[in-house]
Design goal:
alpha+beta, Ribosomal Protein S5, domain 2, four-stranded antiparallel β-sheet, globular, binds 4-diphosphocytidyl-2-C-methyl-D-erythritol 2-phosphate, binds adenosine-5'-diphosphate
């Protein structure tokens, strides 16, 4: 009998880059939001190996997969000898700025912590998750949160209103590392006002949230792929209250007051070679 876990994607409502750290990462401050779009992971017992099967997308099931790396990391931390079989059904586009790999890693840590009876606390899981990727700590917590440091310091925020989102994924992926490496401070960088975003969320002010959308990494990825600017404009023309690139991109999302209005924005959007996904914010298990 397999045990099922959902790994929900995330969008960045803001992303600010504050400086370069001695460890080569960048100091960031960002408001992150879980969304309903998710991968599904089914866990069943195995003698001693970690065996992954993947459906839905062409992705390596080997030791470089973040599900494998999460299982291996937890197994050594929990002194566990048994293996596990994981069926991964991928829906979240890969290397898209939606944290799909990080979400799968976080779901694997939570699931196996429970299944193997290791019993680590959320903060202990977050310390482990940080070793797998900067967005894994947020994916462990989920909901609406402020993240600092590399992304490993996560603080829960009041839940966002039930916003709708139209995710527009262009037909290419972007490596997180290459975007951060190319980041340069300067007038082209649109930096968010995180305090104003937190206030808008706290006040359930949808237009305020839309006005506060900003991502410092947009200046890098839109220089690599200028079509992203046009996608942002097309989402507004289709009726979105605001639009922004998520994370290091290339996914751009349009924000709407609710799921129904996201569906009508998607219907009006002038699609070319992009993939469209309609979803909504997700706040509680
Ligand atoms: C997830 C992978 C592939 O498995 O992504 P890619 O490298 O292919 O993009 C990474 O290698 C897995 O390593 P890890 O470095 O933990 O991944 P992430 O946290 O996503 O960060 C990718 C890279 O972005 C840069 N980065 C990320 C976050 C941050 N606050 N500052 C940064 O400078 C770093 O160069 C980092 O190495
Ligand atoms: N289970 C997984 N799902 C998605 N990407 C994965 C997974 N395991 C490893 N990866 C690798 O992680 C990188 C990007 O992960 P992902 O979280 O999808 O990107 P992003 O953070 O931009 O949304 C890709 O290079 C991909 O090959």
């Amino acid at each position: 009998m397999a045990i099922k876990f959902l790994a929900r994607a995330k969008v960045n409502l803001t992303l600010d880059v504050l400086g370069k750290r001695p460890d080569g990462y960048h100091e960031v401050e960002m408001v992150m939001q879980s969304v309903e779009l998710h991968d599904t992971l089914e866990f069943s017992p195995a003698e001693k190996d970690i065996v992954i099967t993947i459906e839905g997308m062409d992705l390596s099931p080997g030791a470089d997969n973040l599900v494998y790396r999460a299982a291996e990391l937890l197994r050594s931390r929990g002194c566990v000898r048994s293996g596990v079989k994981v069926r991964l059904i991928k829906n979240i586009p890969v290397a898209a700025g939606l944290g799909g790999g990080s979400a799968d890693a976080a779901a694997t840590l939570k699931a196996l912590n429970q299944i193997w009876g290791i019993g680590l606390s959320m903060s202990e899981l977050i310390v482990l998750g940080e070793q797998l990727g900067a967005d894994v700590p947020f994916c462990l917590l989920g909901g609406t949160a402020l993240a600092r440091g590399k992304g490993e310091q996560v603080f829960r925020l009041p839940p966002c209103p039930p916003l709708g989102l139209v995710l527009v994924k262009p037909p290419f992926s972007v490596s997180t590392g290459s975007v951060y490496q190319a980041f340069r401070f300067g007038p082209a960088v649109e930096r968010p006002d995180n305090q104003a975003m937190v206030e808008a969320i706290r006040a359930n002010n949808i237009l305020g949230i839309a006005r506060c959308l900003a991502n410092a990494l947009e200046s890098v990825t839109t220089r690599m792929h200028p079509e992203l600017t046009r996608i942002k404009e097309k989402l507004i023309e289709a009726g979105a209250a605001g639009s922004l690139m998520s994370g290091s991109g290339p996914t751009v999302f349009g924000l709407t007051p609710d799921l129904a209005s996201a569906r009508s924005v998607a219907a009006r959007y002038k699609k070319t070679d992009e993939k469209l996904l309609v979803t909504s914010v997700f706040n509680t298990e």
